Structures are given as C-alpha cells and as structure tokens.
# Entry
Amino acid sequence: MDLEAVYYYESRAQAKLKNYVVSDSLLRRALRKAISATAEWYYDDLGDNYESTRQYRLAVAHYDTAFYLFKDPLALYTCGRICETELHDLARARVYFRRYLALAHPVTEEDKKVYGFVRKRYGRK
# Structure
C-alpha cells in the first residue's frame, strides 16, 4: 500500500522504537505523497494574486514557500525582484538573488538573459 497515511503511521511506530533514521525516511516519503506537484502552481498563483493587489510581503512569502517545497530557483528570482523593485529592500533582494545565482541552471535564452542580468548586478565582486 503506497499511501501517505501508511508511511506516516509506520514512521511514528519507528520513532517510538527509536529508529529515527528509518522514521525520517518514511516521513520524507509521506511528504512526497502529501504534496502534489501541482501545488507549486497554486503557490505561484497566490503570489501572483498578492503581487497584483500590491500585497508584496504576502507575495514573497508564497513564492518563498513554493521554492522551499519545489526547489525551483525562479521563485528565488521572483522574490528578489519584488524585494528590489516593490519593497525597496536591497539587502533582502541581494540574498534572494545570490541564492538564485547559486542554484539556477538556465536553459532557455530568456532564462539565460535573466541569469546574466542578475549575475552582472548581484554576482560576487
């Protein structure tokens, strides 16, 4: 039975037996089952909605959550862009942009242009 709940309850049982490594592994499996791949779209769309209504801190929070769950570096770029252009928090933008530079592997021409712009402006000097 490849169900989220089975992994969860088995992990709790392993934790009671003090088999924490096994418990952690089972919890990670349960998380992969619990968080749908399409949830990234929902976080992105929530971020878009908050950005459209000028609720920039909430937009950044949702894009940041999308990054932590799905590891798409473009979400870091978006957080940096909002921090720089809308919140005028250059220190926070720099943090997001440097994390983006460390993780991004641009493939398309558009992604390469964005990466080049960010590297030129926020890369290590």
In short: The mean pLDDT is 94. The first helix runs from residue 4 to 16.
